[in-house]
Each structure stands twice: as C-alpha cells, then as structure tokens.
Amino acid sequence: MLKVLDFFNYAKSKSPWIVHFCSGCCSLEMLAAMSPRYDWERYGYIMTPTPRQADIIFITGLISKKILPALIRTYAQMPEPSYVVAIGACAYDGGPYNDSVAVIKNVTEILPADVFVAGCPPRPEAILAGLEEVKEKIKKGEPSAASQGGLWKQMKF
Amino acid sequence: MEAIKNVLGKYENEYIEDYKPTWVKAKFKNPKDLLNIVKDLKEVGVETCSTVSPTDFIDENKIEVNYFLEDLINKKNVWLKFDLPRELEECKIDSITPLMPSADWHELEAYSTYGVKFEGHPNLRYFLISADYFGKFPFRKDFDWKKHEESLIQNIDDITSEWLDEYEENKKTLPKDGSETVLHWGPTHPASGPIRLVVGVDGENIKWVDPDIGYVWRALEHLVERKDFVGAITSVERICFMDNPNPMICYSEAVEEIAGKEITRFAKLMRVLLGEIGRCASHLISMGGFFGNAGLHTFVMWTMDIREYFLDVLEDYSGARIATASVEPGGVRYPMPDNWLETLEKAIKKYEDTVPDMLDIFINNPLMKTRAINTAKISREDVITNYMAGPIARASGVKLDVRIDEPYAGYDEIEMDYVTCENGDVYDRLYIFFKELNQSMDIMKQAIAKIKEGIEKGEMNPKKDHLVRMPRRMPAGEAVTRVEWARGEMLMHLVTGEKATSPYRLKLKAPSVNHTMVLDSLLRGKTLSDIPLIYGSMHICQGDLDR
Amino acid sequence: MFDNIWFQILVFPGLVFLLAWTFFVFYFARKTLAYIHKRVGPHFNGPAGSLQTIYDIFKLLTKENITPKTADPYLFNIIPLVTPIVAALPVILIPWTPLMHNGVVLDTNYGVLGLVVLIGVEPFLLFLTGFGSNNKYSFLGGMRVLAQMLSMETPFFLAALSPAILFGTMNLHDIMYSNTWLTTLILLPGAIIFIIAMLGILEQPPFNIPEAEQEIVYGFYTEYSGTNYVLLKFAEFTEILVVSAAAVTLFFGGYRGLFFDSFFCLFLKIVLIAIVMVAIRASNPRLRLDQMLKFAWSWLVPLAVLNIVWIIFAKLYILGA
Questions:
Q1: C62 to A15: CB separation less than 8 angstroms, yes or no
Q2: Is residue B459 part of a domain?
Q3: Which of B300, B322, B421, C31 could form a disulfide with C41 if both were Cys (CB 3.0 to 4.6 A apart)?
Q4: Distance CA B444, CA B277 (A)
Q5: Residue C1 lies in a domain
Q6: Are residues C46 and C173 in the same domain?
Q7: pTM as predicted
C-alpha cells in the first residue's frame, strides 16, 4: 500500500504543471525556459491556463502592492498540494526595488515559498534547477510551505 | 520655429529659448495662460502632447509643471514650464486633455503622484497608484513612506476592498436579466500579463473597455531619486526588460548633457549596436507574442530561438542575458570583448536564415490575414491626436522615428530611412515589426563595418575608448532626451540640483501608456476574440506602462 | 477471444484500448508539436519521455478535486462521468479488426446513422459542463461549443452521408468493403469537407474557439481540476479517436490495407490524420467565432450539399448503377 502511495507522489513530482501568472520581469526568463534552447517540457513542466489544474505557482520577481491580492487569490484557487517557487531577487527582499514605495519587500513572509531561485533575473538553467528541487520536495510528500503558514491567511483577498 | 516663438512671445514669460535643434523651451509666469497657449500652438501645428511632468521643488515651495508638446509632422517640439504653489488646495492648473487627448493619462498620473489638480479634466481620478496611496501623493518630497509602510496588512486590505467594492457595484448596476456582464481580462489571464482590462460585454460583443493599470507599478521615477547617477541605470533599465539597453542610452545622454561631456565615437557606435540588439530582442518577442495571442505558439518558439542568439551577444558583452546594465553615463560600461563582432554576425545570420520560412508560414498565413487585415485601423489623424509612437505610428504611414528626427548616439553616421506601412490595421502592425527587424540588421551591419574600419585605422581602441570619466558631482541643470525605443519614443526629463550626487527628478515617458489609452476606442463594437489580437497588435509592455 | 463481450468491453475496443490510445495520443501530439516548435518535448520521464502522460494522469487523479462554491455541485460532478461514456459509445459501431465478426462489436445496418448521432450528442454535454461551472468564462465557452456544434454538424452529417449514398448502405462494414480506388477519388471532396468539419467538432485549431486560452481562459474546462479534468480529457481524446476512425472507415477503406487487412492499417491511417491535425495546429492561428460561423454556413454547408449532388451524379453516370 505504501509503495502505491509512493508511486502517486512520484507521479506528482514528475508532472508539475505551472499556472500562468506573471507579475514581473522574470517572466521573460520563464518564457525563455519554455523556448527551444532550454525547453522545460523535457522535464514534464507545462503551463496551464487556469490555476485549477496547476501544481506550482511562480512568484515571478517583484510583487507590487496591487497584484498581491491577485497572487494570493490565484494560489488559493489551486488544488492541494500546491507549491510556490520564488524566482529572482525581488521575491526574496525586493531586490533592486527594495527602496520602492510600490513593491512588497517581504512577499515570502506573506506567501512562503518552497524554493528560492537567486538571480536578477535568474537564468533559465537556474529556474530549471530550482524546479528540480521542488520535485524532490513533492517526491517526499512534504506539504508546501504556504499551506503551513504565512501572513496570507490573515489577509482579505 | 519662428512661428512657435511668435506665438509664445505673446504671453507673459520669463524666457523663451532654443533648446537642441528641435526644441523651444519657454517658462511662463501665469498658469492661467496655459489653455490659450495650447490653443494657439495647435494652430501652428503642435498638436500632440508627449507627456506632463511635475517637479517638486520643496525648498522653493513650488511645483513646476513641464509640458512636452510635439509637432509630429514638422518635427518641432515645445517645452512649456509653469510654476504652481505647493499647497494642495491651490496646486491646480487647467487640463489640456479637451484640446489634446494625448495628455489624458499623463495628467492623471501627475495628479495621482504629485497632487497637481487638472481642472476641466473629463474624468479626474486616482490612477496607476495602488489604493493605499489614494490621496497621499507619494512622489512629493515630504511624503513619509516609512510610516506608511508600517501598516502593511491594512494597506493590502485597502487594495482588496477597492476590488470588492467594484464587485458589489457591478452587482447593483448590471441588469438582472439579459446577457450583459463585466469580464475581467487579467491580471492572471493567460494572455494578458499584469494588466486588467475591465470589459463590459453583451454576450460576445464588447460594449466598453476600461484598462486598469498599475499591477507592476514600481515607482521607478521615485526610486531613481535615491540612487547615485551610475546606480540609477539599474532602475532605468528595468522599465522593460524586453528592450533593455535603449532606456539606459536615453538616461546616459541626459546625464552627459548636464555634465557637458562628449563621449567617444567608439562608444557612440557601441550604443548603436547595443540599442539595435535590444530592439531585435524586443521585436522578436513582440512578433511571436502577437501570434501567441492569436493561438499559435509555433512562431513564439521560433522567434525565441533566434532571440537567444542575440541574448548571447549581450551576455558575451555584459555577463547578463537581459539585465545587462551595459550603458552608463560616459559611454558604455565594458570594453569590447574579443570576437564579439563575430558573435553578433552569427546572430544576424541566424535571423536571416530563418526569414524565408517566417514569411511563408506565418507572416503570409491566410488565416492570419483573414483575422488581421482591416481590423482595428488607426488612421494618421488618430496617431497625431493620441500620439501613437514608434512602430504603431509607422504602421499607419506616419514618418516618425527619433533616430532620424533627432539623431542620438551614433545614428547620425548611419544611413537609414523611415520604414512605413500604409493601412495601419492589425496586420500592418505585425508587418512593420518584420520590416524594422530587417532595418535593424542593416543598421547593425553598417555599425559593425564602421567599428572594424576604425579599429583597423587605429582611430578606435576597443579596450580603452569605451568610457569617458564623468564628474562625481553634477552641476545643477535639466535635460530632455529622447530615444527611439523598441515600442516608440522614450522621453526622459532629468533635473539635478547643485553638486548633486543623485538625480533630483527623473520623468520617464514611455509609449505604452498612449497605446493602452486607445484600447477602448479600438475595441468597442468588436467581439471577445478580438481582445487578444488587438491588444497583442499594440505590443504593450506592462513594465513601461506602469514604470 | 475478440468476440467475447467482456473482452470487448474491458480490453478491445473497450477500456484498456481507449486508455492506451489516450496515453499515446497525448504523448504523440506533444512530441510532434515540440518537433515543429524546434524543441524536444517530453524527454526525461521514461524512455524518450513516453511515461510522461502516465505520470500526468496519475498526478491529476490524486490531486484535490475542487467543486467551486458557486457551481451547481450535481451538474458539475456528474457530467464529467457521463461524457466519457457517451464519447466511447460510438466505438461499438466502428469496424476495428478483421478478427471480430464483421469487424464490429455491434453489427447493424444503421452504422453511419448511429455514428453521427452519437458523435453529435457530445457537444451538448460539454455545454452543460460550462453551464454547471457557473463561471463567466466557462459559460461563454459552453455557448461557443453550442454555436460551433450547430454550424459544424450540418456539413459533418452531409459529408458522412456521401459514402452511404454512393454505396447505398449504412452498414459501415459494407461501406468499407465497397470502397475502391475509384470510389475513394469520387469521395475525396466529401472526405475533405468531413475532415474540416471534424476539426470543428473536435475543437481543434483553427476551430479551437470554445477553449481559446487567450480569450476565455480555458472555456468550459476553466473550473475543472483533478479527476474531473482527467475524465473530460479522456472523453476528448476518445472522441478524437472515434471521429478519426470514422473518417478512415467512411472514406479511406478502414482497416483494409494494401497487402493485408489488419487493425494496424486502420491505426496507421488514424495516425496520419493526427499528424495532419497537429500540422494544422502548429501553423495556423485561431479563427474568430463569427468568421467560423460565416465560413461554415456560406462555404462549408453549400459545398457539402454540392458534394451530395456530385455523389449522386457519380453514382448514376460514373459507377453506372
């Protein structure tokens, strides 16, 4: 029985679908990761148009104040287990926009991320490597960080 | 020029002077004159407003409002200045939107960020800024941001409440029976990117469209004020990563103008090369994205494949693929690497090898033509009234190109002509990008030849000539520079104080604002299926829309 | 073995076969499309990525199954169960392999009729999924399915009738064996109309209007997640199989091959049609709804009627019946 459950987790880890959500410059590098030279479909990643079928949401770089409710709402619409990948320096602490009046500096306190990918913007290879790390987490059946906590549960969205 | 000066001379002014070959700069004493001045200017052909830029001089207790007006046909530009008191109640001026519709959103932006009230604006409202800044005017120098930031959750709840209010409002106003409803196209829509088009539809037919922007508002203009002159390029380049070097060129030209420095010929030609590489990278995405919006992903993949070769060139030069930071005041940032020009030639060759297939399969695709030809036409008059810039204007047959009108960097050495299409419909707005790509390849080849020649003759040293030493502290002054960005004219207005180490005020004018502004008139009466196509054909980048 | 009813339901041409087909066509479409995109497609999961679909489906089966608060819970959850069954029903009418009696599970003289009716029911169910989701985009998708169905099924039926008229029978097995090189040529215009209308019925590009990602998110699929989504996708791929097999049977001689008759000849022909579909998908943008309607009613329907006239003419004067 346990083996069967393991297989399901294994299957989950092998087919992560990613919801279309772009809020910053890093989405260009996601597009590059989809494109012929990097082609993340080799690993089984595809983009889905609706959050209902997605497993992973990207925090693509900066999250401005205005789009934060949309991010949380999109995350909440995804079926469990759903994971968060934060890419770019902006998702960590605001990065180059750390001084900006309009950008959220602590996105991952609000919506905790399972994996950070460094870079501004990170190269497509780095994004792929980050996604491989999420795969490990899914394979072990660990719950996502965002389902465990984060300020997003206190917010209206 | 004389006609414009005569018109301006009629009003009480502090000075009227020539600025650069194509500008007249004038400062007026009485803000009440504005409407009459604009009316008179319209009669001599200045019909377009590029942007409105307030500057907050807190020490002198005044807000200076700058108007940048342009005559797109005869290439004559006017720069008007007015002083307003800083107090919120008295900080008001007449709106020029009824006379020049192109000023519409620029005035809203100035109102939201600086609190300059434009009287007579048809729909003066808070715009661009997020709901927690409503009524607080965050770009004013005395805005206490740290204090505002303390109540983060409350701020976010404010923003959410704005949405929920809108939802309740829609519930009340929409008819209970019938097929009318309000759709939100974005911000998490697969084709939209971070923008929200509020679309009133009756079944499939569009009644009205109300673009809601500000989802990637980063307050770059405000952010720049807290960086030094070189550090500011990291903010400026982040206007939009699709075409990354050109905004930096624009900013650097402004700084050099204030410092009074001339850069080397080698650096100028390098700027041409970098700018054109950026333009190619951007155009390739735009063209692919246009087809992607029409439901065909093959072309995106093909153009992305070509784009990678151009990014290789940028990476060879600066070490980064898209965030290059490769141009800085004083020239270009790095010396030219060995064999760099060969890498670039390889990228050009890659593009030229793909051109026949692109033409056969995609650009001349019959289904694409069925959808695109004669859809959403933009006439020459629309271009002038609403100031469509760059490729969109050229698709309508307006000869408009800053590279030729007001040559910057090394463009005065390059032989080039306006590329235009005739009809200004969706198909032309795709085809113009293809034509411009070919033109860019040509420009790059010319620049490569010139650099190679210069190096051979010993006039240029690619390892040393790239940078001129800039003064650490700038003199007081202001400058306006324009570049032809991938999506159209980019205008920067830079103000510095005495012995400044950082910009006092930097206004970034980007073309996508005007392109988004006309979406309503373009989409009315069309069907839902036209939204992605027409939206895609305007080649809007949310990064430069919100800044 | 092939005539055993349980074998037919569970293995061939029943459940196992349809599942295997779904796995295959998902993988095949992705790989072919990737090739045209200059990409590789699924590569690392299983040999050359062949296990990718299996992982995808097992993942979706174990994901949370969301029923939105505003949706009609019964309609929303029952329709995905009904749809694959309805989509799989026409399978019993199609001659699959010479190993079975007359090649079919259910040998009837009204094969063509049953086929077009059962294929024609499917879009109603898809409309109901959109209706039950109670989401604006889903509902619009549902309405688009209806509009497309109404306009595309007329030429579809008329084109499907042409072999029946030519050979004077509605028995699919007889139609298949009456087909010769000459009749294939006579039926060619009908076949082209059938394939174009088929793209509309199957919601394939350039007629993928009901699930237009860039316009209405994902049409009627928008709110579906987990198991329900798998069932709907299973129905979609089954329908692709059924309609392509119908095209091959009606116009291109079904499982008859050049040298021997076998299921593999049928399969090869279906794959060829699938390649044509993928190639069209990879090189053409989507049409607008009103353009599709105009195309269907002012070109496809008149052509389909003319085709019937041509078939009758050919029957009288070329075949000399």
A1: no
A2: yes
A3: C31
A4: 8
A5: no
A6: no
A7: 0.89
